Amino acid sequence: MPSPFPGMDPYLEHPMLWPGVHNGLIAALQLSLAPQLRPRYYVALEERLYITEPDQRVFVGRPDLAVIGQQEIEAAPKPAPSEPSVLTVQVPVPDEVRETYLEVRETGTNYVVTVLELLSPTNKRPGRGRRIYEDKRMEVLASRTHLVEIDLIRAGEPMPIMGNGSLSAYRILVSRGDCRPNATLYTFGVRQPIPLFPLPLKPGDQEPTVDVGGILHELYDRASYDLRIDYRGEPDPPLPSADASWADQLLRQKGLR
Known about the structure:
Oligomer: single chain
Radius of gyration: 22 Å
Strand content: 15-25%
Order of helices and strands: HEHEEHHEEEEEHH
Shape: globular
Low-confidence stretches: 56-74
Number of domains: 1
Largest sheet: 6 strands, mixed
Distance between the termini: 16 Å
Mean pLDDT: 89
Number of strands: 8
Structural class: alpha+beta
Helix content: 25-40%
């Protein structure tokens, strides 16, 4: 079953779903681009690994709070006023985060021509994940390597750019190494299809058109996300009121509410 939304499905942004969507979309982009770029280039799937601060966890793996019922509290032994308390507590445990991204490399030289990033929640929230990503981003922007940055996450603070493009719900930034500081920013919302864009390569080479929307919709269908999403509820994070009203009408027309 295809996604009911014309572009980005906001229900895929849920913290329980997004890690799988992120990795699946990166892998699908690699498989889509690799045949179009050979033999001049190959597409390498790379990984970033780091430890996040406990209070910056965004992937749901362990509960942040332990909910204890009233009966448990009453059943717990109560020390006498003059005796010290001995309690069982939990300590914060940092999370290991793995982020995948793509590098388009020149065959033979292994020179990195283009870096393609798909942002995750840890990139957009204060903390170690954002600092690590911003450092990597600045390294790319200081080089001649092209940067493609796909942001399909509404939560968190957008990556810094000069201009008002960060006000849009979703963004695709295409920064060519030979055109900086100028770059092309594609902005769109939940009601619009994800725009197509050319993948920047070396001058003179034919640049394939990247259809993130088509690849995402195929991934949604093949991975059966329709079986995991309950469209009767609201997405996480919730949509603004105008978009929420539009989504409600759309989902009712599709028979999902």
